[in-house]
C-alpha cells in the first residue's frame, strides 16, 4: 500500500472529473447529433452530400391497408347468386369478373393483381350483413366493390361506415347512400336525382302539360316521386302533376286496375311508371287491356332486354310508346371491350344491363386504384377517388369531390322499337344533367 499526498490526490481527482466531463459532453453531443440525424436524414453523414441527396429523394413508404400488398389487392363483393333472382346476379358478377380477368391478364394495376372474393346473400338482408362481416373481419379485404341489392346494402351500411373501408358502387339507387359517408362511392344514379331529370325531360322532350305517376309504394317509388315533385317545382311546373295519392301500388301486387283507371281518368299526356320489373310489366299489361296508349317513361332499372322479354307479350302495342331512362353509353365502340371479354371468359352468360353494371363497378374501382398509385392505405384510396374524373368507361363520366357522392348525373332517354320479331331500345336523346 502507498499513500498520496494531499496536493497530489487533489490533482488526480480534478483530472478525473475533467476527463469524465469531457467524455460526457462528447457522448451527449454524439447522442444529440444522432437524434438530429434521425430527424433529418440529410445530416446523417456530413462527409457525403451525394448520399444526403439520395436519402432526401427516397419516397415515404405508405403502410398498406388490409388486403393490399406489393403484388395483389384483395377485394370483396356481395349479392344474389342463387335462387329465383340469380338471373340478376349471374350476369352482374360475370361482368365484374370479366373486367378483373382482363386487367389481371394485362399485368394487373400498377403490377398488382385483383383478387375477388364473392359472397352470396340470396337477396336477403340478414345474409348480406353476415357476408359483409366475413369480408371485413375474416377475409380482411381492401374494399367492398359492387354490393348488389338495396335491402342488403342498407342493412350493412353502418358496418361499412364504422370500419371506414372503401365501398365502391352499389347495385342500388337509394338516395340515402349519397349521404352515407366519405368512404362510400355510389355510381348508379339515385332515384331522387333520376326523378328530377325525368321532370326536366317531361318538359323538354314530351312537352307535357299534365303528368300522372304510378309508383311502387316503397323507398324506390317514393324516392322517384319525390324527385319528380322537386324537379317540377324547380322548373316552376308543379301544376302539371296530377294527384298521385291513389296511384301507388305495393311490391308483389298483380292487379293494377285501380291505379291504371285513376291515371287514365286524370287525362295526362305523359305517364311515368316508377316501378321495377314485374310490377311495371303488369301495369303495361293493364294499360294495353284498357287502350290507354299515351307516351310513357320509366326508370333506368327497367332498361334491360330481360324486362322487354317479360313485358312485351302482355303489351305488344303499348310497349312501343314506352321510354326508359339510361345512364350507360351502349354504343358499339363502347361495348366492344365488354363484349370481347365476356366472349373470352363467360361465353355462356348473356350480355345485358346487369352485365354492364358489374363491368362498371369493376372499372370504377380500378380507376381509383390507378389514381392512388402505391398509396394504398384506405385514406390514400379515398383521397384518390375524391380527385377522380373517369370518362373512359361505359358511363359518360364518373367523378367525385370531397363531400359529394351523387353518382352519375348524366342520363339519356331511349325508346322501345320493334326490330323484326324483337323489341329493342333505341337511343333518343343526348346525355343530359338536371
TrEMBL record:
Keywords attached to this entry: Amino-acid transport, Signal, Transport
Positions of the UniProt region annotated as Disordered: 28-58
The family this protein is said to belong to: Belongs to the leucine-binding protein family.
Residue ranges annotated for the Leucine-binding protein domain, each copy included: 73-417
Top-level lineage group: Bacteria
Entry-linked Gene3D superfamilies: 3.40.50.2300
Keyword field contains Signal: yes
Gene Ontology annotations of biological process type: amino acid transport
Matches recorded under PROSITE patterns: PROKAR_LIPOPROTEIN (PS51257)
Coiled coil (UniProt feature): none
Protein name per UniProt: ABC transporter substrate-binding protein
